[in-house]
Write a structure and sequence with these properties.
393 residues, Aspartate Aminotransferase, domain 2, Aspartate Aminotransferase, domain 1, 2 domains, 7-stranded mixed β-sheet, 14 helices, 40% helix, binds pyridoxal-5'-phosphate
Length: 393
């Protein structure tokens, strides 16, 4: 119904289903199951449930379905399946399509838990994996082979903000018959058009920008109807990674304001990143839309804006970074991102601690690197806060 409307309109209206009461805000169907009028109806629904028919909340729920339909409309995919967390989406998308003997190629610069799935979990089930430098197309070409069932990467990597050429990697994957699975968290559904670039399956941690207010864990898998309903759904409904109806309601509310929030956050991130380049206590600033970014031209082409997160390498290594973190008054030390509150993270000692120093350095996660997720506070206040904290370094 909302297909012809622009994304701003779809973010507010797509997927809405009203009950007989005509409620304005989406209803939260806090129910585990659904009653059938007759035994015949129960039998029929177990054979094939219609679009507004549900059998059990682990398989689907009206509030969750509203969120799935809205996400699919926003991403431009045929369908979507909502999950309990971003990692349930990542692991569900990969495990549901793979079997022993399959081969997966993935970029090495990944969120810690994504790397664990690719490096530790998949091989235990007989799936071989190859890790490549995602920004190097020759490495993708050499690693993909007959039997490569999927390629997987973060379109913008966490926390080093490397940008991967989606269209080029997708072309390499397609030539080998592999599905393209992209974790698009940092680019958000707004800034990178994954469907135009040839992505088959898009996963999000909706814990990040979609909720955007630090309230709930969630995830979603977006793709073709065949992939979502015939591959991902059977896996997820039988292994139990379903999103709760209450969380789906929070995510629906989050989508309504996603465009306004994320654009404001990205504009402030660009302003801060620009202003901090050349600061004497800053060794380098990482932000996809800064001309100094190694994939700046690609980032301009592939991303409408540079995202809500920038990286800051503070002078003085870990000690400098800690003095900076401890000196901030507005930005909070935590490990979420995309939140309405600014959040600062020291990846080397928290999110990427498990990797060990050599692996961290190979990925560019230096002891002085700080990840700054820009919230909705006033940009001038944030700049003053950052400048005051940098004075302590
Ligand atoms: C946070 C994050 C995840 C995991 O999401 P959860 O909701 O915490 O399970 C996966 N990928 C990326 C890029 C993330 O930032």
């Amino acid at each position: 119904m909302t297909e012809s409307y622009s994304r701003r309109t779809r973010l507010v209206h797509a997927g809405t289903r009203r009950s007989q009461y005509g409620e304005m805000a989406e209803a939260i169907f806090l129910t585990q199951g659904f009653a059938y009028a007759t035994a015949e109806e129960a039998e029929a629904r177990f054979i094939a449930a219609g679009p507004d028919e549900f059998v059990y909340a682990r398989h689907g729920n009206p509030t969750v379905r509203m969120f799935e339909d809205r996400m699919a409309a926003v991403e431009g995919t045929e369908d979507a399946f909502a999950t309990a967390s971003g990692m349930a989406a990542v692991s569900g998308a990969l495990l549901s399509m793979l079997k022993a003997g399959d081969h997966v190629v993935s970029s090495r610069a990944l969120f810690g838990s994504c790397l664990y799935v690719v490096e530790d979990i998949l091989p235990r089930f007989g799936v071989t994996t190859a890790l490549v430098d995602g920004t190097n197309l020759d490495q993708w070409r050499r690693a993909v082979r007959p039997g490569t069932r999927a390629v997987f990467f973060e379109s913008v990597s966490n926390p080093t903000l490397e940008v991967i050429d989606i269209a080029a990697v997708a072309a390499i994957a397609r030539a080998a018959g592999a599905l393209v699975v992209v974790d698009n968290v940092f680019a958000t559904p707004l800034f990178t058009d994954t469907q135009r670039l040839g992505v088959d399956v898009v996963v999000y941690s909706t814990t990040k920008h979609v909720d955007g207010q630090g309230r709930a864990l969630g995830g979603v898998i977006c793709g073709s109807r065949a992939f979502v309903r015939k591959t991902a759904e059977p896996w997820l409904k039988h292994t139990g990674g379903a999103m709760s109806p209450f969380t789906a309601w929070l995510m629906l509310k989050g989508l309504e304001t996603l465009d306004l929030r994320v654009r404001a956050q990205a504009a402030a991130a660009l302003g801060l990143a620009r202003a901090l380049e050349g600061h004497p206590a800053v060794v380098r600033v990482l932000y996809p839309h800064l001309p100094s970014h190694p994939q700046h031209a690609l980032a301009r082409r592939q991303m409408e804006a540079g995202g809500t997160v920038f990286g800051l390498e503070v002078a003085g290594g870990k000690e400098g970074a800690f003095r900076f973190l401890d000196g901030l008054r507005i930005a909070t030390i935590s490990n979420n991102l995309g939140d309405s509150r600014s959040i600062v993270t020291h990846p080397a000692t928290t999110t990427h601690q498990r990797l060990g120093e050599a692996a961290r350095l190979a990925l560019g996660i230096t002891p002085g690197l700080v990840r700054f997720s820009v919230g909705l506070e006033d940009e001038g206040d944030l700049m003053a806060d950052i400048t005051a904290a940098l004075a302590r370094v």
